[in-house]
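cron nightly-structures :: item 1 of 1
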Amino acid sequence: MNDTAKQTGGCQCGHIRYVLTESPKQLIACHCTDCQRQSGSAFGLSLQVPTAGFQLTAGALKTISLKAPSGRKKLCAFCPECGSRIYNQPEKPGVIALKPGTLDNTQDLQPERHLWVSSKQRWVDIPDGAEVNDTQPG
C-alpha cells in the first residue's frame, strides 16, 4: 500500500470532506456478514488510520453504535445527507477504520490482510501473499 498521508476524501454527495494527515497502518478486507451487509457487497474494506491522522474539513458526521460479529462495539460515522459510511471506530483506542472507497484516489489500494474468511463468498479469490484469518484475531 502506498503512503496515503495528505490524501483527501469525502462522501458521495460532497457534504463530508476530510484529509489524512498521517500514514495509514494497514488495509484490511473483512468478509464477515456484517461487512457484507454494510457494504452491499462480498466484503468491506477498512483502512486502519491513526485517529489523530483523520481531519474532517467540511460537514458534520452522524454516528451510531453497533455490535460487531466479534461481540465488540464499534462506532460508525457516516454522512447525514447521503448515508455514505466514512469510518468505523472499534474499541481499540487510537485508530479508526476508514472506508477507503471514500478516498479521492483509490488507484493504489490493495488489501494486505483478509479477516473472517470463514464467511467469505465462495467466488472471492484471495491473492497470494495476503495475510488470512478465519475470524477476528484477538
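cron nightly-structures :: done
The helical segments are 33-39.
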